[in-house]
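> forwarded from #structure-qc
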């Protein structure tokens, strides 16, 4: 894990917090994770020669490494944990029942 994974996670959590009141916690997290996934796919297209030189799904299937995978999975996991742990979620209700 390197610093970009932490940076992407912090950015994702900030955007999730900003968008939460308008679209809800799950959609807010999904939107920013989709942006990071699109960014990674675009970087892989450019690594293959650019979007005009490669086939339509080239960036989705080529040039993936653990680093690029973690660049969008780390924010996805963090946003999912925040969405699950906040008041009103299923996990929160189960925890409240036990007490």
């Amino acid at each position: 894990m390197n610093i970009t994974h932490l940076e992407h996670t912090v950015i994702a959590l900030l955007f999730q917090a900003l968008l939460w009141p308008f679209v809800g916690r799950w959609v807010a997290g999904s939107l920013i994770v989709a942006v990071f996934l699109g960014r990674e796919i675009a970087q892989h297209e450019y690594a293959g020669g650019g979007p005009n030189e490669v086939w339509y799904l080239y960036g989705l299937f080529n040039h993936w490494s653990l680093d690029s995978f973690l660049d969008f999975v780390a924010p996805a996991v963090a946003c999912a944990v925040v969405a699950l742990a906040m008041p009103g979620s299923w996990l929160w209700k189960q925890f409240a029942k036990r007490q």
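QC bot note: The chain is about 80% helix and 0% strand. The chain has a mean pLDDT of 89.
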